[in-house]
Request: fold
Amino acid sequence: MKLPNAHLAIVDEARIWEYLLNPEHRFDTSRARFFSGFDFSLDAWEVLTVALKQHGAGNEIVKDEANRLWYALRS
Reply:
């Protein structure tokens, strides 16, 4: 099953550059290190935004039994 209404997906831009790609985040820098390993950077944060939307639209989802409020993407 595909993500319903994937074309309407919203990626919070501030969360991308303040949290996921920020190598100086005050609590956790592991996310920035993880994404930099895939060539995503704070200088081009828009690229990650597009990639997340494409991933959500292009992959199958499964019900996540650990948290019934969310879906997990299967790639």
Q: What stands out?
A: The helical segments are 13-20, 30-36, 45-58. The CA atoms of residues 6 and 38 lie 23 Å apart.
